[in-house]
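Subject: for your reference before the review

Hello V.,

The reviewers asked for a structural picture of the protein, and I figured it would be easier to keep everything in one thread rather than splitting it across files. Below is the amino acid sequence we used in the manuscript, unchanged from the supplementary table.
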Amino acid sequence: MGRTVTASDTRAQTPGDAPTGEAPTGEAPTSDRRARVEIAAALAAGIVFGAGLVISGMSDPPKVLAFLDVAGDWDPSLAFVMVGAISIAFVGFRLARKRSTSLSGAPMSLPSRRDITPSLVIGSAIFGIGWGLVGLCPGPAFAALGQGHADAILFIVAMLGGAGLVDLVRWRRDGDPDGATGT
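And here is what came back from the structure prediction:
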């Protein structure tokens, strides 16, 4: 059973050529193939990120709370994890700024806003309070859930509820549930 030829199949067919969706060598991949590559890359990045969270201890709430307890029994080991992560991100963003497209060929889209808004301050405070209360933030919460920590379920439900509440407030305030206006 052959696949349907679409408008994205722009190369000329020669007799006996079967439309496979694969571009010949030297041509750009089709949008279907690019999407598969992007999904595979995202999956690989997520697996590496999750493994890093587990190996480093970032998904272990008692370890995170000990790191945040600078006035008590402080465990500075996660500071090394953070410095390493910030260093890698710093280099990555510097390299990304020099490119007009991503490695997959998609247009490069980096944050351009640098102003400090009330929404940023309030959101940061809520994030910090939540992190300090339970020792989890979004990424490590999902890693902890994967490790079988049942308390991560409550955190994830509360996080999703909070995100939904923000959307509802934005929608009621200015009809912009996705925050596209940047307010």
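For the response letter, the relevant points are probably these. The radius of gyration is 22 Å. DSSP finds six helices and no strands in the chain.

Happy to draft the paragraph if you're swamped.

O.
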